[in-house]
## 1
Amino acid sequence: MLQPNPALTSLFAQEFAWCQVQSGQTAAILTEPDSSAQYLATSLTSLSACGARPFQLMLPIDPTQQNDTAVNRGNACSTLLQGFPEVVEMLKQVDFIVDLSVEGLIHSEERGEILKHGPRMLYIREPADALARLLPTAERAQRIDCAVELAKVAKTMTVTSPAGTDLRVDLADSLVTGSRGFCAEPGSWANWGQGLIAVFPASPDVNGLAVLAPGDIVFPFYKYVESPVHLYFTDGFVTGVEGDGVDAALIRDYLDRWEDREARGISHVGWGMHEKALWHALSLYSKDEAIGVDGRAFAGNFLLSTGPNPAAGRHTLCHFDIPMRNCSVFLDGQPVVENGAIVEPTLKPNA
Ligand SMILES: [Fe+2]
């Protein structure tokens, strides 16, 4: 087993303190064969130093059982717990779960089932320098809470961009979530480093056009868009992907290969709130070492996502996260983001 790095142990202790890890609490560290050995060793050491009672769970990912029509990677829908209902039952009983799975349980069905019973779950996947740079702050958490409250009372979200985006989202009965980078409350979930608001629409009234422009990012491809893509939404589903370049062709091919109507449904819409997250980070961190928190969270992006949507009662393993730059986002006609910058005074960094 690797020797933990003292600096990393201290860094993890800071994050675990944000997550209210207390003496005597049970902490499961969920791993698979390709999980970071360094982060496993550091989690065990740091949680023990906090007085918690950590233990490791290692589950096999069976590569022969993966989807044979589309590549199931980078979509934040780990299948790690599929086929292990007894492990899911056990995880419901622990206080704190560190998710070191490669893909992350973010959009898995098992995550929601476990959290209903009270455990907190923290996903750790970014490089150490990103984890340090993106640590939570009380100021940012408070701004994200404000954003959640604004979205909860809003009836519609509209989005425009100089590239031609013109999208309208009915927010009635939607599930509004703020991702603050730490999980302190029972049943809460966090991705260390994250800072954004994500709204899962329940209504099928999501209509219009999103125009992906060069520099926008498409996950799970981990790729900056280089040629414009027109994504048409009709009644909550992608009904057209147009564009002459390779970007449109990639999205079309990937969606088609899933042979799953749910893959085309709206998942979540929202915007980045993290003032230290970097748009350019994706060009420096490899796919293997980061899940792309920087790209998904940089302040003022419009984050458009398709696929699983618990508010609409839909599930699929196909999930796009598409952070778009230079958009304007309005709640009931009031701007919260203008041309890629947060303008609502209560949401601006250091407001
Ligand atoms: Fe997502």
## 2
Amino acid sequence: MRFMKIHSFGPLEEKPCPICQSDDSSLVTVEPVFGEDFHVVRCRNCRLIRTNPSPSSEWKDCFYDPACNGIMAAQGRDFVYLPSEQRHPAYHSILKLLKSKLPAGARLLDAGCAVGGFVKTAENYSFEAVGCDYSETAVAYGKQHCNAPLFHGQADCLPFDDASFDVVTMLEVLEHFSDPFPALEEIRRVLCPSGTLLIETPNYLPYYYFERYLKKIKPLYCKATNKQHLPWYPFDHLTHWTSETLLRALATAGFKQCITHSIKNFRIDTPMDRPLSRLFRLYSSVGNGLYQLTKMASLDFRTALIATAVKQ
Ligand SMILES: [Zn+2]
């Protein structure tokens, strides 16, 4: 790879399924990237899809080190944290959903807030909002340029007292953990009794079906979306959630009233050009409609997973 300055970023680690601890899995796909053959596998017991083996902390340190990775040298360690106006429509949709469940002035923590775009938007919905992120650079940028009330800290070691928040949000965060349970446990600690957790994460069921049954038309997908692979990002997304496994993980972490929500045309990523955008809206309507009709997790092809759960 042209941007790799060293032969390998380091070793990968074999781990059991974080939900059920099983080692028994079937192969979904192999993605060759950054000099590794990343294996995406599906647990035969609980059906969690994950990257296994996954990057070790040594691999990640090397990946983000400009001395080893030319992307980081060119764009900086935290290029992914730049504020994205494109996410604002999604933020409004999520905040409207939360507003319908919580009173004005509710205390909100956005865990994995990057530069705090969601936190600032939440203030306009009368939430008393703060954010927390593991990136010191992102937190410093958000404080300086967006005047956002942000704190530095890992999701599994939050710098807040017990029962400090009425609601915690995690947007595009859960998929980055190879084991989400330390973070979910920590979020339970900082939530007040009956506090709400909201998680938004990509829905990987369509891509799983694609790999399993539609492999032959993968080149068509790649041509239409101008991508070389399906969006597994297996070096960065270490767990690939479906509504079934997400709700199971939340229940396993001790949350109750775990449910998913449908939001019309929900999309948190960058916008598409016109023909593709029309196709996306059509797909989104079909996905939402099919789920409303059947309520079956095995037919849940909604464009993203949006789940809420309540602390017991
Ligand atoms: Zn499992």
